[in-house]
Amino acid sequence: MGLVLAAAEAAYPAECCGLLVGEFDPIAGLAHVTRVVPSRNLLAGEASDRFEIDPAVRFRVMREPGFLIGHYHSHPDGPAQPSARDRAMVYEPELVWLIIAVAKGRALQASAFRGEGLEAILLEYGQNGGVGDGITGQIGRHGEGWLIEP
Ligand SMILES: [Zn+2]
Question: Average pLDDT, stretch 102-120?
Answer without folding.
Answer: 88
